[in-house]
């Protein structure tokens, strides 16, 4: 075995990733068929008494007669079109994207020789990862592969002894039968060598076949033996020669410095000296996959979140789940198009920017938060995920970004009194930035401004150039 030297796989975020700021990914799998509550259906349907279990037995019958594997042929993906997905990504303004490569359910979304349970042999009969990779790259979109399959350890272990997960013939679908306690976040019994080997081989197979620009690991990767985690990182960074590829990871699943730190549904109060990523949902339901009667956050909500994250040296990776047939809800499409329209006009304040000395101004408090291990443990116990939301930003809240010598001030609302008032840029304030010219992106003429000991006061024009947020461009 190769000696474990984590310093040999230390990797800073490449410039393209730091410049991209915004990505999309897509939770799509057999769990999209029942579309009940969330993407943890494949686990919770086997937990007697949980809401998804009760729904399953009422709708589909007993767990012995109708198990998760029986959803495979129902996930036909007849409307899946990778070119349409690529067009949606491009239209949204996202710069990197990809489908979930494998969730916790042992269903690989690529043409896998390691795992016979995949989207080519079952379900849609398509190489989803492969088709998306090709279509996205044609549009100049960087590609993302996400791995959640460490969760498979104990995932399907049921409190119903008659469930189909315990039938020996079904082991290829659900894995080896394990003690029930292995489905905890931090089990007593960690994965054995065979499980860890297959975990690594799945990652390496995707790296071999598709050479993703980002390899994303979901939480709980720490349960995989260190030699296998190291081997996967080493293979991606060195064996394949992916010089500008990057790994993202959560919590303490990998040593600091081997990639980009990701905080699920997360935010920071202040800028971080290191690039980071928050993965979050477009879904307004507490789900990462399509559900019955889906709801979606507003374009304004996502744009404000993106501005806040970017001002603090982060990227936003946004999820949207398609239907089982591979199409997207019209409301999700409309919202992504609105985000794309805003970025098409104001993108210079987002893409390729870096944090300013001060990230934020305004009355709204944004505290450090993420979907931490306590929330994960509660979800495992109750079957329902907690919701992590930030406070709603107001018209008196501003975010700051820079590109070269240019400073961008992003106002989260239109000033009712007709003046933007930016206290951060007051005379003799915390920032020594000279102000020679102020323009509003989307308007040609420079704006009238007054700078005094209270604030930089900028006269708003009569007409808004867009909706949701407004970018003042400040030059010396």
Automatic annotation (TrEMBL):
Family annotation (Gene3D superfamilies): Glycosidases (3.20.20.80), Golgi alpha-mannosidase II (2.60.40.1180)
Record-listed E.C. numbers: 3.2.1.51
UniProt enzyme class: hydrolase
Gene Ontology, cellular component aspect: lysosome
Residue ranges constituting the Alpha-L-fucosidase C-terminal domain according to the UniProt record: 399-475
One GO biological process term: fucose metabolic process
Domain of life: Bacteria
Domain Glycoside hydrolase family 29 N-terminal: 5-348
InterPro entries named in the record: FUC_metazoa-typ, Fucosidase_C, GH, Glyco_hydro_29, Glyco_hydro_29_N, Glyco_hydro_b
Main function: Alpha-L-fucosidase is responsible for hydrolyzing the alpha-1,6-linked fucose joined to the reducing-end N-acetylglucosamine of the carbohydrate moieties of glycoproteins.
Family: Belongs to the glycosyl hydrolase 29 family.
Name the record gives this protein: alpha-L-fucosidase
Organism: Eisenbergiella tayi
